[in-house]
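Thread: quick sanity check before group meeting

JM: Hey all, I'm pulling together slides for Thursday and realized we never actually wrote out the predicted structure for the chain we discussed last week. Dropping the sequence here so it's in one place. If anyone has concerns about the input, flag it before I start.
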Amino acid sequence: MFSVTGGVCRCGFDDPPPPEEPHYDPLDGPGFSIGFSKSAVIFEDTYQDTPGYWCPKRSTRVVISVSAYGGPHGGHFSISTANLEKLSPVGCGPLVIPQSKNLDPGESFYVSFVCEGQDASGQKDDVEIDGSFIENETHETIDSAAKLTVVRIELSPIVDAPENSARGRHSLGVCEYLEHKQHPLEPAITWTPIGGGSNMIYNAKSCYRCPIRSFSNPLRCELSSVSYTPAIKVLEPQGIQTSNVRLRTYGVANGHAGGVGLLQHYVVVPKTVSFSQIAVEEVPCDRGSVSGYFRYALSSNLWTHTRSAKAGQWADVDAQNSVGGSLGEDEAAITEELLPMTSEGVVTNDVSVGWISGEMAWEIPFGWNDHGTSGMVGPIEEFATDTLQEFMIDSSGACGVRKFHNQVKRKIDNKLYLNGLEVTGN
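JM (edit): ok, ran it. Output follows.
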């Protein structure tokens, strides 16, 4: 007997229909048949999607069948196999195929097994079942054989995500590169994007470039009549985190208001995928709410969030999901002096008059597009749309800037505060 045991996860594949058992007429001569329902099996081994979390093996399925009929005189068959251990039977105990069997006149034999991939073939068609049936009286010989290739695919992102170093990661950022391999190399699998994106050679590697929008299972591989869809999830940017937050002053004299700014770097999240193949921008927008000091001091055509204020300027994202280029360090600042203002809203140079309180705010969305985007091209989609940037002043002349929940403040005695803590200037 040939015996193989094992089993893997199917995860949503349709089972192949079992072949019908042959029905022989008693008047028929002998019959003998060995077959695979498909010429190949495609499987994906266990892979680590995040550190410590392993996804189960997944595989297409094939049916092995062996049938024989002794005819009016009976006979016997013999079977040999090669590399059958590269297949694993599904839910039916061990895969047992007799090496030989005698059949009486009119006796029939039939067995079938549903199997999945267990190990990759070393070469094309190296999983083989060969057999022959010899009739007792005439010694007529019937030969039958079947061959199969077990193909293992392997997927890995080109770039590690900032907070996910798993090399088998199937959660990917938009436009991210995913290398695909197969073992053995022949027969060659066809990789077909079915959810956007494209196949390409990147750094001398065969890759799939993910679509620019989110999609589940956007890639399919096919070999002959066998089709396999890896469980891939493409994610869009979901927000912005800040890092390297600091305060800057701009030379406004002691006793005067203004001259304070908030500097910070941007990081695109989630950091469990890589966004190193996109660019982001702060989308140009008009000023939002304005009150008090700023309503009196500024004309209506000032303080909009324009390209001169770094809005609408594309910056590529790096391997750490950090935004580079012109947005590498964002600066939100009141760079000049805010002159004193009377309660009637009249600006003056007399600091003894004091100031009136006021606020001005923008809701500044971010947008993303492909890596290398430049010029006036608009975003594919906006994200981080709850970004609020605020300038403020109180009646004592203390000025502040708030953005992404970080805040700086400068008092007229030149005391400086970053997120409520007193700091020194720079």
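AS: nice. Residues 239-423 form one domain. The CA atoms of residues 84 and 130 lie 12 Å apart.
JM: adding both to the slides.
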